[in-house]
Write a structure and sequence with these properties.
The complex is a heterodimer of chains A (239) and B (299).
Chain A lengths: L1 E10 L2 E11 L4 E6 L5 H8 L7 E6 L2 E2 L11 E4 L11 H9 L4 H14 L1 H4 L11 H13 L5 E5 L7 H16 L3 E5 L3 H7 L2 E6 L2 E7 L6 H9 L10
Parallel strand pairs in A: 3-8, 3-9, 6-7, 7-8
Antiparallel strand pairs in A: 1-2, 1-4, 4-5, 9-10
Helix pairs in contact in A: 2-5
Chain B lengths: L1 H31 L6 H19 L3 H25 L6 H22 L5 E2 L9 E3 L2 E3 L1 H23 L1 H11 L1 H6 L4 H27 L1 E2 L3 H16 L4 H41 L6 H14 L1
Antiparallel strand pairs in B: 1-4, 2-3
Chain lengths: 239, 299
């Protein structure tokens, strides 16, 4: 479904990402792990056209989407780092925003489906996004993305700032989405959570892929964290 | 007392046109976070397009109105492409300076094509003066007020009932939220610019049709009135733009009556000065700005 080939990103002279490649199939979860500054967010933002691509290619369902802006990508949605909601919009308006240009009947159907997943939001439809708690705001960001009926969902630190219980609920929700056939690319600092969900893991360090492989064959979360912190060059840690 | 009420009535009518000018500024500022200094001169282009149609082809009010609107929108699209779309990133000052240059360019272009000091503009002839007991209301003032009210109501519908309005409000609230939600930010920004130009064109037409004559100074006049009304009402607040416009109109009308023409100008700028010192967030900006900041902090 998604293929990234030798993707490089530069911000001026800074090399944020160097020739990173990955693939992701339908109803598959790929976790991207790395320390701060490893290039995880840049990778996600470049896939959906929010960061400029210096070199490489991104294809989605066989179409070249390299550099295509998010509004032009049918089937791809993003849950950005920090949720990034418009605080003065209501929950209902935020959901409407996520749906894009659709007919009223289709909009109602999507809204019903999304609110079935997030019943708490249904009780807050007229509440402004800026007044929601952190957990609710995360749910709203997720719901907004799902209103676009994506086949590929990109998630950048979805549990940032959440309590462990709320973070676990977010990952339960992601597991349910995978069961429903969505492909998920998840950037997550909590390796314990991401290893529990992911089929495969991509490890980044200083903008380079240092390993990629099945989650089951990865070391446990603590060991993996140690490996990411380790200052030694470990090219192709796991293949 | 009758004079005071009469002045207030007149001031509210002309203030509604000021409110529309401020609304145009506010729409652009809200979405772009940049000031369009060429807003008034864009309206000037529209008004002179209407005046040309009127003087060369004896066109009636409706064609003149449409020409005014079209001229303002086309001139605004030119400004948007050069001073806003072409200058990306965090460059509000560059955009403002660039639009100031286009102000000079547009005004000079109009002055070259129309070298006379003043030109005639069609007026609302034949409409009877309205009597409300001891008070009078000029028919063009009534048209001005009702048109402004209808336009504001229409704008409210666009903002709250359409997808474009939702995109515009999102962009105004949080540009990044619009981008990550799949909004075509550049397209919404351009359409907002054109919408603001159309509102400004209507305001310009109403003002010109009320006076019956126009000069090339009208561009600067419209910029000043719109900016002052926006600042008095509260930067970035649509409600504030309307309140600021009405307040400016009423104060001007009272000052004109009690202090004369020169006193009116002094009072206008004194009002701006007082508003900036005592109420820097504007008449309506405080509550909105505070609520938005609080909401942003929570997110």
């Amino acid at each position: 479904m998604l293929a990234v080939e030798a993707l490089s990103i530069r911000y001026g002279r800074v090399r944020a990402l160097e020739e990173v490649s990955l693939t992701l199939g339908h109803d598959e979860v790929l976790a991207v792990a790395g320390l701060n500054g490893a290039g995880k967010s840049s990778l996600v933002r470049a896939i959906c056209g929010l960061s400029p691509v210096a070199a490489g290619r991104v294809t989605f369902e066989g179409r070249d989407i390299t550099g295509h802006p998010l509004y032009a990508l049918d089937g791809v949605a993003l849950v950005p780092e920090g949720r990034v909601l418009a605080p003065s919009l209501t929950v209902a308006e935020t959901l409407r925003l996520g749906a894009g240009r659709v007919r009223a009947r289709e909009l109602d159907a999507r809204r019903t489906e999304v609110l079935d997943r997030f019943p708490a939001l249904g009780q807050r439809l007229n509440q402004r996004a800026g007044t929601l708690s952190g957990g609710e705001a995360t749910m709203l960001a997720l719901a907004r993305a799902l209103m676009a009926t994506p086949r590929l969902l990109l998630l950048d630190e979805p549990t940032l700032g959440l309590s462990p219980a709320a973070a676990a609920r977010v990952f339960e929700m992601l597991a349910a989405l995978r069961r429903d056939g969505l492909g998920l690319l998840v950037v997550e600092q909590d390796l314990h959570l991401s290893l529990g969900l992911a089929d495969r893991v991509l490890l980044l360090r200083h903008g380079r892929a240092i390993g990629q492989g099945p989650a089951a064959s990865m070391p446990d979360a603590r060991r993996l964290e140690d490996l990411l912190i380790a200052d030694t060059e470990q090219e192709q840690l796991i293949c | 007392m009758i004079d005071f009420v009469q002045n207030t009535l007149d001031g509210l009518a002309i203030g509604s046109a000021y409110g529309l000018l401020a609304l145009g500024f506010t729409l652009i500022f809200g979405v772009m976070r940049r000031l369009n200094m060429a807003f008034g001169p864009s309206i000037l282009v529209g008004i002179f397009a209407g005046a040309w149609l009127h003087s060369h082809w004896s066109a009636g009010m409706i064609p003149v109105f449409l020409a005014t609107l079209a001229g303002a929108v086309i001139a605004s699209a030119y400004v948007e492409r050069l001073s806003f779309a072409a200058i990306r990133g965090d460059a509000a000052l560059a955009s403002m300076a660039s639009s100031f240059a286009l102000w000079m360019q547009l005004e000079e272009a109009v002055a070259r094509v129309f070298p006379q000091r003043t030109y005639a503009f069609p007026t609302f002839e034949g409409l009877p003066m309205l009597e409300l007991g001891p008070l009078f209301l000029r028919p063009e003032y009534l048209v001005m007020f009702l048109t402004a009210a209808a336009l504001v109501a229409g704008l409210q519908v666009i903002l709250t009932r359409t997808l474009f309005g939702l995109h515009l409000r999102t962009l105004s609230d949080n540009r990044e939220a619009a981008r990550v939600s799949g909004v075509n930010v550049a397209q919404v920004a351009l359409l907002t610019f054109l919408l603001a130009a159309a509102i400004g064109g209507v305001a310009g037409f109403l003002i010109a049709a009320t006076d019956g004559q126009i000069s090339t100074k009208l561009g600067m006049w419209a910029t000043m009135k719109g900016l002052i009304a926006m600042v008095i009402g509260g930067l970035g607040s649509m409600r504030g733009a309307l309140i600021g416009g009405l307040a400016l109109g009423v104060v001007e009308a009272q000052a004109q009556w009690y202090l004369g023409a020169s006193g009116r100008e002094i009072t206008t700028f004194a009002l701006l000065f007082v508003a900036l010192i005592l109420l820097p967030v504007g008449l309506a900006g405080g509550a909105e700005t505070g609520a938005r900041a609080e909401a942003g902090r929570r997110l």
